[in-house]
Design goal:
The complex is a heterodimer of chains A (112) and B (114).
Chain A lengths: L3 E4 L2 E4 L5 E7 L5 E7 L6 E7 L2 E4 L7 E4 L5 E6 L8 E8 L7 E2 L3 E5 L1
Parallel strand pairs in A: 2-11
Antiparallel strand pairs in A: 1-3, 3-8, 4-5, 4-9, 5-6, 7-8, 9-10, 9-11
Chain B lengths: L1 E6 L2 E5 L4 E9 L4 E7 L5 E7 L5 E3 L5 E5 L4 E6 L8 E8 L8 E2 L3 E6 L1
Parallel strand pairs in B: 2-11
Antiparallel strand pairs in B: 1-3, 3-8, 4-5, 4-9, 6-7, 7-8, 9-10, 9-11
The chains are: A mainly beta (112), B mainly beta (114).
Amino acid sequence: DAMVIQNPRYQVTQFGKPVTLSCSQTLNHNVMYWYQQKSSQAPKLLFHYYDKDFNNEADTPDNFQSRRPNTSFCFLDIRSPGLGDAAMYLCATSRDEVGGYTFGSGTRLTVV
Amino acid sequence: AQSVTQLGSHVSVSEGALVLLRCNYSSSVPPYLFWYVQYPNQGLQLLLKYTSAATLVKGINGFEAEFKKSETSFHLTKPSAHMSDAAEYFCAVSGRNAGNMLTFGGGTRLMVKP
């Protein structure tokens, strides 16, 4: 089945230690998104790629970076995780930024 | 710009009772509207979407929603709640043009009592 896959499902990292979360998709969608979702809150868009074009949200901290080496893969890099970065990170895809998004199962990040 | 407001952060119903989750939107252009469900430690799953044509939209798991332009509402309903419906539900809106991002409401946690 075509889908969005996030690895790992659970990630524990040390305060200040760089961490990378990965997302892959078999839908051949040209847009990929990263959302941060803290406990009991709605998902918050961090950035997205429209094809190879990177679009950062104005209030996304510089600590968060992203890479998209090809259509299928997208990575979220947190350069120096703080305790406040503990959250569920959701990857999503869509075709041409219009219509419904398809979400992965998420990666729950714990910072110790 | 678009926004959505979900009335009631928590809704509790008895098993077999009607489920009604409220969503009101604000949009300067004709919107697309969505309902997503999220189970604990899971991603978001699309329940249904309104993009045009029929204003009554049927989704998965027996849910449906009606787009009411005059009321700027897109409430989610299910005639008979099941224990497995307990989850977090998010209403979302986007514009119809490329570049219009999906904007989520604050979410409603549905609890189903036996």
